[in-house]
């Protein structure tokens, strides 16, 4: 394919980047001898780097964000129009796109009622934590302030978000952490902590949460935050029986259930939100990445009316309302882009496509599992899929992280960008991650898994 862009002086751009840009999640020492990767343009599922090389992007912008694909002029147009009309006003006031998107969003979330705008997933989760903490002070004298989180889950990059993160390598060197966050066990059946399977394992993993609550004291626990599918910790959907039991436990002990949909939200799992696969009703839901597919910065912390009402029941108390602000939660481009993003998903039937193409990914990975003994487990939900690599199937010994990353590198050589867990969970950074845009076609899926097939053959030979 002819490269669809022109760069007048690629070398000057590369050198400016090398000299001045501090990249995310990257060790920069190699850039002394190797050029940083610079992505210049995207269309659909394809992106082109500054050298003109074309890649198919199987991770939606590298961090599971560009749900409707690149080059959506209609989103860019509404963002431009909104910026000219009103680019920003502080969130203490409303805006037309803010009101319209909140209404459209709540329509997709039965049982939820209120939308608090912010600009990143980490910030949205901080809002949820602050709500739980303030409720503890307002209703329980500050005692019911602890927030539970799950091993392997990830909730953001701020110090308090890391305090609720179950990935030790992401947390390393950033302590001391915010007190009052308490870990509960993971629910990955492939790495089972109990000699059980299926629904029995799911219920037992949930019961482990109750054990932590009782150990800590139920009168001290105000909330629990969970990903509907554990993302960076290994693409882990919970077994049957897990979510229903979790909700029962939360209701039993008056604990707010907070679901982190930053990765799974807005179509990624084949439903509007990941929790909707499991028939549960959260109290707080956070979201970010796919809300506007990266066309504008936006995140949301969504609550039930019952949670919202806890902050307006005594208007005479000057400290009673939610005393929080997100400066760029007042940027009007975010909800404008989010409205158009949602319209595209509906008009193009992308939820249905996500389920169909997700099933194709899983089928293709299972076929590769028959061919490559290094694949120990295949799992996922919708277009969010993983393949856990092992050195030995019988013992389930994880494949060394360097070899896992070598598979990613071999795919890159073929022009296919895939992901893998890395520098997150000690000893278990061994899962390949696939999350292409919801517009993926059968040919796209086959090209991605064919590249993995060839990469596994190369790396394991």
Walk me through what this model shows:
The protein has 461 residues and is of the alpha/beta class. It folds into two domains: 171 residues, Aspartate Aminotransferase, domain 1 (Alpha-Beta Complex), CATH 3.90.1150.10; 274 residues, Aspartate Aminotransferase, domain 2, CATH 3.40.640. The chain is built from 14 helices and 18 strands. Strands 4-12-11-10-7-5-6 form a seven-stranded mixed beta sheet, with helices on both faces. Strands 13, 14, 15, 17 and 18 form a five-stranded antiparallel beta sheet that branches. A four-stranded mixed beta sheet has the order 1-2-3-16. A hairpin with a 5-residue loop joins β8 and β9. α4 runs parallel beside α11. The protein is globular, with a radius of gyration of 22 Å. Belongs to the class-III pyridoxal-phosphate-dependent aminotransferase family.
Task: Describe what is shown at a glance.
One of its GO terms (molecular function) is pyridoxal phosphate binding. Keywords: Aminotransferase, Pyridoxal phosphate, Pyruvate, Transferase. The protein has helices at residues 10-20, 60-64, 73-85, 96-107, 121-140, 159-163, 168-171, 198-216, 242-252, 305-309, 333-347, 350-371, 401-413, 442-460; strands at 39-43, 46-49, 54-57, 114-118, 146-150, 181-184, 221-226, 229-230, 236-237, 256-260, 284-287, 299-303, 375-380, 385-392, 397-398, 416-417, 419-420, 431-434.
């Amino acid at each position: 394919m002819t490269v669809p862009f022109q760069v007048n002086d690629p070398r000057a751009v590369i050198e400016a980047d090398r000299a001045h840009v501090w990249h995310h999640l990257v060790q920069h020492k190699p850039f002394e001898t190797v050029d940083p990767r610079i992505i210049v343009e995207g269309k659909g599922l394809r992106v082109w780097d500054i050298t003109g090389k074309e890649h198919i992007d199987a991770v939606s912008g590298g961090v599971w964000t560009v749900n409707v694909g690149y080059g959506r002029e209609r989103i860019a147009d509404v963002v431009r129009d909104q910026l000219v009309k009103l680019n920003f006003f502080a969130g203490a006031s409303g805006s037309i796109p803010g009101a319209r998107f909140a209404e459209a969003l709540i329509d997709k979330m039965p049982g939820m009622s209120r939308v608090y705008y912010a600009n990143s997933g980490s910030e949205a989760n901080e809002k949820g934590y602050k709500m739980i903490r303030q409720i503890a002070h307002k209703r329980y004298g500050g005692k019911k302030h602890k927030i539970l989180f799950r091993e392997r889950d990830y909730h953001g990059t701020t110090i308090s978000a890391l305090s609720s993160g179950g990935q030790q390598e992401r947390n390393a060197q950033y302590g001391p952490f915010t007190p009052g966050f308490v870990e509960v066990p993971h629910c990955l059946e492939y790495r089972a902590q109990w000699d059980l399977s299926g629904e029995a394992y799911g219920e037992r993993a949930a019961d482990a949460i109750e054990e932590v609550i009782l150990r800590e004291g139920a009168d001290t626990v105000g909330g629990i935050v969970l990903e509907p599918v554990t993302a960076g910790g290994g693409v882990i959907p919970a077994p049957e029986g897990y979510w229903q039991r979790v909700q029962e436990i939360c209701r039993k002990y008056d604990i707010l259930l907070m679901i982190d949909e930053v990765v799974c939200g807005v179509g990624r799992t084949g439903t509007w939100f990941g929790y909707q696969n499991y028939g549960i009703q959260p109290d707080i839901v956070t979201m970010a990445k796919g809300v506007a597919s990266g066309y504008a910065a936006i995140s949301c912390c969504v609550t039930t009316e019952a949670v919202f009402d806890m902050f307006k029941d005594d208007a005479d108390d000057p400290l009673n309302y939610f005393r929080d602000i997100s400066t760029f939660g007042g940027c009007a481009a975010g909800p404008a882009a989010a409205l158009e993003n949602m319209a595209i998903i509906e008009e193009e039937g992308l939820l249905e496509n996500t389920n169909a193409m997700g099933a194709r990914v899983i089928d293709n990975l299972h076929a590769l599992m028959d061919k490559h003994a290094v694949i120990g487990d295949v799992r996922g939900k919708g277009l969010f899929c993983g393949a856990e690599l092992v050195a030995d199937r019988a013992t389930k010994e994880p494949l060394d992280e360097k070899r896992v990353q070598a598979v990613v590198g071999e795919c890159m050589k073929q022009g296919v960008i895939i992901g893998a867990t890395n520098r997150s969970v000690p000893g278990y950074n061994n899962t390949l991650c696939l999350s292409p845009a919801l517009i993926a076609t059968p040919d796209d899926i086959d090209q991605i898994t064919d590249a993995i097939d060839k990469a596994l053959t190369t790396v394991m030979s």
